[in-house]
Amino acid sequence: MSTEITTPNANSVAALSSLRQGLAQVRASIPASVGGQALLRLLKDGQWVMGSEDSPVVAGTEAMINPMSFQSGYSCWTNRQPGQGKNELMGEEMWGVGAVKPPVSALPVHHDPRTQELCSWKDAMAVDVKLLEGPFEGTQAHYKVTSVGGNRVLAALLDAIMARLNAGSEHVCPIVQISADSYNHNSYGRTYVPKFDIVGWASMDGTEEDAPAAPAAKVAAPAPAPAPEPEVAAEPAGRRRRV
After folding, report:
1. Distance CA 199, CA 65 (A)
2. Which of 101, 160, 98, 104 minimizes the C-alpha distance to 125?
3. Model pTM?
4. C-alpha distances in angstroms, 228 versus 137, 166, 219, 231, 234?
5. Which in 3, 24, 43, 64 has the greatest CB count within 10 A?
6. For the chain, which ranges sit under pLDDT 70?
7. Which 3 state secondary structure label does DSSP give 15?
8. Residue 235: what pLDDT?
9. Distance CA 180, CA 197 (A)
10. How many CA atoms lie within 13 A of 42 on its CB side?
11. What is the DSSP string of 102-167?
């Protein structure tokens, strides 16, 4: 089943009801490879990048979250100390919307082939986003996290989406501004964490929710003037569609 935001008929009552049930299962489970998709990552210096070339993504770039693409699972990495070499991914298990995440005790055991130490499984989440502006406008990317901060950010998005579904809204795709926050870690110093600020909502076909009308500005009455030339009619305000 395709999970593109532009999936036809995705606004049906049945589809939204199924989405709500599936997201509830993903949210309740919180404490792989991604074929053909670019990976969106936050580097240790707080810079967002995308793709194999680590092309920079400007902070504040807007992106649309695809709620049908949420995944929850586990990642298993080595925990090597300085001088022991680069850490390796030993295993990854992810489940999508509608699947039940099993307990970590049901997962296979992995040991570091270099140090023979036991590798622990950590909670992981992932989601697809579509960038809406900048050099990557219209590009869909995959964002996956295993850090506590990253899991919290995606969990907060799930909570916001669930609130919209419970309210009966068909606009359940968050439009976010991608940025980063930071704090001082006792051992690692300045540590950056992802930040997704919700700035709007769209339906599953990419149509944005109407923005509230701005109050009319009060201006002084103009002085008499010659009849103006005909104006070009302004495009009516209302919904926009992001594709």
Report:
1. 12
2. 101
3. 0.71
4. 39, 51, 18, 8, 16
5. 64
6. 1-12, 24-36, 211-243
7. helix
8. 45
9. 10
10. 21
11. PPGGGSPPEE-TTT-PEEPEEEEEEEEEEE-SGGGTT-EEEEEE-SHHHHHHHHHHHHHHHHHHHT
